[in-house]
């Protein structure tokens, strides 16, 4: 060691390389300078490859889709200019197509995601603007479903030779713990009415005391209060009672409507067997049944989303949900009809969904495949009539097999004259053509539900109310169809369709 007292000699230490910077090697790397200043401004067109989904969505919105129903809502010239509807539709279609459905998530992705920055032209709408746009134009956005279907038809992707109808339970944006049964509603309503009466008596006593002295009145009602004011505790209970009464009225109205429809249907079938027709008798039977209808004690209403219902999903769990229905074409798994119902049973949707599919496509399918959830006397009769009127053959499962049941052999000989419609359908499914046709059901419709649940994150709805749920389900179905179009034809087909 040089200098100092020179008692010890220390070897000189080599200077270490700075941490994080690679040591010199015999290799040439590409230039990398994060602080490089660009000579020219970057072009949005250079951000994505030519075959990217975002480019397809951009061309679709700008050149193909009809946005006139959305544009027609903008009639007020005053105020701050809103975002271009094309921008917002681009974000929603791409977001729903890739599983980014939350308005807050879309706002974040407009900064973090290159594809959404490309679609938004480097703008970042606030999540409130996105949510308001979706809610305001929900009907027009739901109508994109029919536009996506017609686009697939023009590309030859919809044949309507064989379709499958099925339903799936979608979780509502509400907790099942916010639901209350009819029996508990009645008990709770009586309890709160008693509490309100007690509080009102107490309030009257306080008012009487307040008349004697202004100080006591000020302590009870506040400095600016008056005799008409009620304590906050009483006000809360009255609001709670109003919610309970509204929920009770909803359950009672639904029970009456269900009884009315059942009685009218029963009366129509009786008249059909007798060869008569009297609509006034049908209406009278319905009104009589509705007047006598009483809700079941376990019938429930939800305070967060009153239109949703507790339903059992495919896993056997009870959830607050809507029943989403879809008709799917076999050729490219394009959805031809999509709707939402608040009834957990699928049986009520056979005729309405097939009619909707025909109205959307203009074509009656040759074959319809449905599972046992749709099997009912009414639907079997409707399937028979559809075969006669539209030449549409229905393959409807008549029930699940028991644990020890075996599939019966294919029938031989003529069908017995006294065979019921259910027996005829069961016999039809046991034939070789019937087995071959029905075996395709799961391969047609089940993958569609799986794709919507996973690729589109569509297991839970974001919008509340039956109308909101229906609009969102149809928007999900539209995005599913558009992804099918993108994978089948890509961006090149849009130029032809736009022309």
Automatic annotation (TrEMBL):
Residues 43-136 form the Transposase InsH N-terminal domain. Pfam families: DDE_Tnp_1, DUF772. Residues 312-482 form the Transposase IS4-like domain. InterPro entries: IS1182_transpos, Transposase_11, Transposase_InsH_N. Residues 1-26, 252-309 are annotated as: Disordered. NCBIfam families: transpos_IS1182. This is IS1182 family transposase.
């Amino acid at each position: 060691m040089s200098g100092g007292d020179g008692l010890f000699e220390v070897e000189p230490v080599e200077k270490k390389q700075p941490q994080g910077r690679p040591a010199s090697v015999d290799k040439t790397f590409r230039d990398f300078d994060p602080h490089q200043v660009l000579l020219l401004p970057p072009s949005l067109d250079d951000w994505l490859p030519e075959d990217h989904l975002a480019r397809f969505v951009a061309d679709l919105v700008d050149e193909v889709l009809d946005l006139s129903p959305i544009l027609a809502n903008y009639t007020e010239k005053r105020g701050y200019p809103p975002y271009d509807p094309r921008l917002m539709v681009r974000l929603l279609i791409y977001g729903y197509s890739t599983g980014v459905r939350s308005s807050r998530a879309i706002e974040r992705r407009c900064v973090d995601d290159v594809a959404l920055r490309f679609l938004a032209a480097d703008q970042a709408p606030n999540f409130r603007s996105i949510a308001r746009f979706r809610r305001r134009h929900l009907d027009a956005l739901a109508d994109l479903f029919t536009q996506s279907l017609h686009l697939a038809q023009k590309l030859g992707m919809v044949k309507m030779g064989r379709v499958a109808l099925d339903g799936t339970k979608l979780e509502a944006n509400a907790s099942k713990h916010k639901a209350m049964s009819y029996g508990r509603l009645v008990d709770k309503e009586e309890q709160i009415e008693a509490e309100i009466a007690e509080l009102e008596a107490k309030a009257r006593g306080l008012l009487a005391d307040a008349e004697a002295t202004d100080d006591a009145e000020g302590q009870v009602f506040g400095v600016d209060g008056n005799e008409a004011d009620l304590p906050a505790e009483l006000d809360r209970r009255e609001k709670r009672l109003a919610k309970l009464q509204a929920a009770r009225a909803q359950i009672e109205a639904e029970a009456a409507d269900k009884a009315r429809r059942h009685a009218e249907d029963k009366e129509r079938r009786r008249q059909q067997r007798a060869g008569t027709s009297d609509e006034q008798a049908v209406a009278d039977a319905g009104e009589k049944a509705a007047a006598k209808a009483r809700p079941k004690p376990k019938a429930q209403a939800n305070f967060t989303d009153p239109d949703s219902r507790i339903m059992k999903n495919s896993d056997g769990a009870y959830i607050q949900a809507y029943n989403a229905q879809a008709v799917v074409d076999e050729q490219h798994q394009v959805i031809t009809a999509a709707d939402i119902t608040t009834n957990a049973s699928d049986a009520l949707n056979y005729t309405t969904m097939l009619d909707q599919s025909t109205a959307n496509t203009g074509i009656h399918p040759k074959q319809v495949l449905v599972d046992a959830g749709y099997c009912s006397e009414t639907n079997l009769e409707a399937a028979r009539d559809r075969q006669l009127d539209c030449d549409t053959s229905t393959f409807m499962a008549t029930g699940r097999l028991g644990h020890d049941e075996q599939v019966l052999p294919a029938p031989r000989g003529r069908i017995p004259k006294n065979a019921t419609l259910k027996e005829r359908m069961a016999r039809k499914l046991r034939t070789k053509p019937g087995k071959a046709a029905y075996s395709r059901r799961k391969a047609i419709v089940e993958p569609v539900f799986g794709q919507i649940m996973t690729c589109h994150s569509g297991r839970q709805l974001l919008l509340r109310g039956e109308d909101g749920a229906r609009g969102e389900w149809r928007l999900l179905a539209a995005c599913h169809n558009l992804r099918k179009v993108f994978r089948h034809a890509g961006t090149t087909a849009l130029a032809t369709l736009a022309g």
